[in-house]
Amino acid sequence: MPRQGNTVESCIITNWKVKEGDTVTVETVVCEVETDKAAFEVPAGAAGTVLKLLFASGDDVPVLKPIAVIGAAGEDWQAVVGQNTQETSHEDKKPQKEEQIESPSSSLRVSVPLCDDNSIKNASPRARNLAEKEALPLNAAQGTGPGGRIIERDVIAALKDKPPLTAAAKAAGSATAPAIGSGIGGRVTAADLATAASNSPVPTPQSPLPNEGAITETPIKGIRKVIADRMFASLAQSAQFTLNASAPASKLQEFRIGVKSQGDLAEELGLSRVTINDLILFAVARTLPRFPYMNAHKVGDTIKTFERVHLAVAVDTPRGLMVPVIRNANMLSLAQISAEAKWLATACQNGNAKPDDLSGSTFTVSNLGSYGITSFTPVLNAPEVAILGVCGIELKPVSIGDAGAGSSAVRFEPQIGFSLTINHQAVDGAPAARFLKALGEAVAHIDLLLAAG
Questions:
Q1: Within a 10 A sphere around the Cβ of 434, how many other Cβ atoms?
Q2: Pairs from 218-222 (Cβ < 8 Å, separation ≥ 24)
Q3: What are the chain's domains?
Q4: Has residue 166 got a pLDDT over 80?
Q5: Is the pTM of the predicted complex or chain greater than 0.70?
Q6: Banded model confidence at residue 248, pLDDT cuts 50, 70, 90
Q7: Mean pLDDT, to the nearest integer, of 201-230?
Q8: 302 has which bridge partners?
Q9: How far is Cα 343 from Cα 152, in angstroms, rounded to an integer?
Q10: Alpha-carbon torsion (102, 103, 104, 108), positive or negative
């Protein structure tokens, strides 16, 4: 597995392009892989015959680990790799023969044999673990391994004919499950397992259920799993706190209207395709250097602040969320930021972004304003200490001064919303609020900020 950038530790094999026995050249693409950042094709790197594919599609493989063996036809691939992919024959010396199952609806506890001793001894550890996890007696699986040994694929095959179990039923332990349970969609509950163990009749739900339609179960894998794991880790490992504010947006809108009216001149200056989001990115890049504690990483017990702003921009792609980086954004003009943002977004959507395009950010901006979102809680792009959520533009009432008789006149003005999430381990609320206020002022007077360069 080739290394794809310094920060990439593993890649997911999404699709094998060859099979064992195929003849390949050095340039032949053997598989497609992806990280949480981008997708890549992996060339063979050597000419010969594909002797062995060491991983399956969907496997998450550490970088620099062998994924396939290419050599001369008939060559002993195991000798080349120096490993045996057959499942280990190590036996647990003290197999558990019984397990206690507790019904969630009563205090009844029953002992149910997992399986006979012969089934335990003639099953691989992976097969035993999967069977225990799915509450499947091992003697329900037909062994296809050497000498009739039950291996993992045998348990998987047996599970196809097994009724689905609720999470509580799985946690209850291995037991003979009824053909249909009393849960939603016929799922077997822990109470059903207890009833089956005591040889009592299992309640049968009405079929079909009047309000239940089709149920589709989609495994979380590939890039979606990587994103899910990283988002969970971000929330689990940091104290995330979100502040919400808004800023006048009339100058943003006036600039966009003015650029459109300039036609060829705007095209010549590289401003014809500038968006509201580009203006926000420019304002963020110019404001952050005044608040270095926001342009920072928290790594263990150390906070690293950065002189330059490497601005990440969240991009929605067919593969999932990607976050390319505009490097040295505080040193770029509005036209340069706009061009870089659009180039990176296109590369992500087309699957052409490189690992270096998606790493090394110091601050992230996520814009959901085009979807009409008025407030949300963005999740930190660890190890960054802050992320800015950009919301939609709304008309809001604004006081315009004393109108006499102790009353104030009110008018409606366009306001753009901001949701700033910080890591409270590294940044306190008041300093974060000062940054957000300064950003709002920069946006409210974007014309002056642009004039200052």
A1: 13
A2: 221/12, 221/58, 222/12, 222/14, 222/34, 222/58
A3: 10-81 (2.40.50.100), 98-197 (no CATH), 224-451 (3.30.559.10)
A4: no
A5: no
A6: very high
A7: 71
A8: 299
A9: 46
A10: negative
